Amino acid sequence: MLEITKINPPATLELVRQNILKYKNPLGLKGRELTSWAEGLEFSSDSEYLFYTGTEYQMLPYLDSLVKALKTMNHLGSGKKILYGLRNMVDKLGFNPEKVYAGILAKDKEKTRDILRKHVLILKALGIIPQYLGEEEWYAGALLYEYGYENDVIEIAKNLANTLKERKITKIITASPHAAEMLREIYPKFTEFPFKVYTMAEFLKENLERLPLNNLHQKFVIHDPCRLARELGVFSEIRDIIYKTTSAQIIESQQSGRFTTCCGGATKLLFPELAEALAKQRVKELETLGEVIITACPYCYFNLSQQSNLPVRDLTEILV
């Protein structure tokens, strides 16, 4: 008779899940850590448009420090036992030890905040003042979905759908292709989600004739994010935007568009060694081709930036 062995999820994944359900984001960040990027920007309270960050750009500077902290904790004993112990401390004492550790060592906050600000400034230049959910914003739940926590994803989808209906939002512009895929492809499987969902690249392409021009003349090599190109079929839009708004030359890598190579960024929290290896491999290819690496995903941006000798730019950075 075949014996079935129950496999427990990785301790890190369980911590991520608990953080999402309790704090609405995988790292347990709160307050200004999530929303300070938006200070001083103009947002609407009744626009039909929502700018949705999914808390992803905000999390990136904390990832390395949190990974180091988790490795240290795991050396102290059973990973799962240690992490559950930490969560009990959070509940009883009202602070998050792993988050504090990450916060002290966090770097590159300004870079990722600046990218989000550029998203909003571009929208404003197009005549759109969107809504922003601030501390009400949920992480879209891609990690939970990929690892089988379907009931949690359903709860998040329903909560977000109710919030958007209350605010009379009909169109969502996302900063991350991971969030766009969840909102467009996954949520409608579980709940009524009658909203038009754009990636930033798609929205900019729709407004191509109204985008500002600049005098960039560099050689750009594009890293197409996996989720954006493979799952959502968005890659020609990036090229159209660059050709229309700049004088830059685009040099294509052998693995681009639908055949792009993963940079490993989305696996960093759970599999940091794999993420680093994939990024190094991808950067080695891209650095032989251009002067600037262009991408349109928070995880790709951050993971490639850490390994590349070339500057890595988010698509929005070349427009502002």
Note down, in words, how this protein is organized.
With 320 residues, this protein is α/β, with parallel strands linked by helices. Helices cover 50% and strands 8% of the residues. It is built from 15 helices and 7 strands. The strands form 2 sheets. The chain has a 4-stranded parallel beta sheet with strand order 5-4-6-7, with helices on both faces. β6, α15 and β7 form a beta-alpha-beta unit. The chain starts with 10 loop residues before the first helix and ends in a 6-residue tail after the last strand. The model has no long low-confidence stretch (mean pLDDT 87).
Number of strands: 7
Task: Please give the largest β-sheet.
Answer: 4 strands, parallel
Oligomer: single chain
Radius of gyration: 20 Å
Distance between the termini: 64 Å
The residue ranges in which pLDDT falls below 50 over 5 or more consecutive positions are none
Strand content bin: 5-15%
Helix coverage percent: 40-55%
